[in-house]
Every structure is written in C-alpha cells, then in structure tokens.
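Operator note (shift B, R.M.): manual run for Phytoene/squalene synthase family protein requested after the automated queue skipped it. Running by hand, logging everything below so the morning shift can see what happened. Input copied straight from the record, untouched. If output looks odd, do not overwrite the archive copy; leave it for review.
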Amino acid sequence: MTRDEIVAGARDAIQHGSKSFRAASRLFDRTTRERAWMLYCWCRHCDDVCDGQTYGFGSGVRGNIGVLRGKTRDAVAGRSADEVPFQALAQLLSECPIPERFLEDHLRGFALDEIGWQPATEEDLALYCYYVAGAVGCMMAVIMGVKPEEEVTLETAADLGIAFQLSNIARDVREDLEAGRCYLPTDWLDELGVKREALFAPENEAALQEMIKRLIDSVAIYEASARRGVNRLPFRSRLAVLSALRIYGAIGRKVRQLGSAAWEQRVSVGKMRKLAFVVPSFAEALVTPRR
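Run finished. Output pasted below as returned.
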C-alpha cells in the first residue's frame, strides 16, 4: 500500500472508532494529524482484538495478545504485513523515532485484560492506565515533536493519557462489568463493603458514587500534571491537546454529575460542546508560549 492508502485506512478507523479523538485530531497540522491517525489505527486494532469487538462495539471472540505482539514486532522490524493497522504502524515508525518500549508497554495493558486482571490498589490502577493510555500519550508526544530523551515532558504526556483513561473507566463501569472486567481497585470495594458482582445493587449506590468521585478527583490531578508539559509542543499541538483534555475531562465529570443515571446510556460530549471547548483551549494555547 502507498502512504496515502495507509492514511486513508487509518482515517477510516478513527472515523468509526472515536468521535472525541477524531475531533481533537483535526486541530493538528496535516502531518501530525496523519501520524496520529496511523497510531490510533494500530491502537484501535489491538483493543478490538483483545475485546472481540469492531471499533469498540459488539461482543465476539477475543484474540490473542501473543499474536498481536508478534505482528507488532514484525512491523517494528519493517517486515511486510497484510493488515492495515500494522502497515500503519510500520509507516509511522519509519517517520517518527517512537521508542519500542512504549509499544510493548501498551500491549502489556491488553495482556492484563486477557487474564481477567483487576487492580488491587489505586497504584495498580494508575499503572494499568499508563499501559493502555499513558504509553499512547508518550507516543503522541513524540509524534508532536518531543524527543524520546525528554523524560520529564514524556511523564506529563503519560499523565494526560492516564487522565483520559480514568474518565473512560468511570463512564464504562457497567459495560466493563457486563464484559467480565472491573477496574475499580479491590481495596476500594473491600473498604466500602461492596461485592464486585453486586456493584450496581441499589444498596451499593452510595459506595459506587464514592468510587466514581475518587476516579474523577484523580482525573483532575493528572490533568494538572499534563498541563505542565503543554508548553513543549508547537501551537497547533498545544491547541489539540488542551481541547482533548477538556473533552475527555468533561466526560468524566458528566458521569459524576449524573449519578446512577450515568449508565442508562453511554455518556458522551456533543459536537457543539466539543467545538465550544476549542475557544478556551485556543486562548490557553496562546498564553502558553512554547519553551
């Protein structure tokens, strides 16, 4: 496939797979936007294979993390692949110096899902969030021009991904539970006297809301850390990151605000509200000069 064909396939993946990331990616310059799509295409494919889904929807046969690791290593080595996600990854790696450790870290999160893992502590949860989203934040930072040796900036990029994932976990508690997964730490459940299988029982509503509060309070902490690295990015990348931060943060805060009604339907942020987030993000990007 030509690069244009690969980019078209990656654009198709993000069109179907993520309204929020797609909206934020439009704010990048063309090259950064296309590279972000290629990274998303690989990440989306890995997620779908491990969940037995298509673009995050449905419930089918779950794939094998070992197969994904093998195909990913082939892409890293520049060996040809038939599937667009691995062609997209190979093309991206030919253009950007993304450290292989971030790819492996990302796959570690899926490996935990494959064995039905659940965090025991808040620290375990943070590490999982780093694997499945923080490592992606690091790769996105490199795509946006951050050098792989700029560890401090990459740490803030990881915190941005962790913030996004915590909001996703809050939104998807019921959906995850129905799929046999739970990302609420077992020590929280024990402390509040809740059995995992009875999480949504009426008598546990207050306890569940307390755990959601803890998740969203953590989102704010990681968001604050992420902002400290924004000034290392070009203007359009600052704008995109700040817009994404507001969009994903709004999802988590809406879940908290809705209480038990949050899981009656999938919480999202409407198109007009997403556009509205661009205005304060533009202002913040302007007053945050690049260093």
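Quick read of the result: The mean pLDDT is 92. Residues 3-286 form a domain with the Farnesyl Diphosphate Synthase fold (CATH 1.10.600.10).
Leaving this for review. - R.M.
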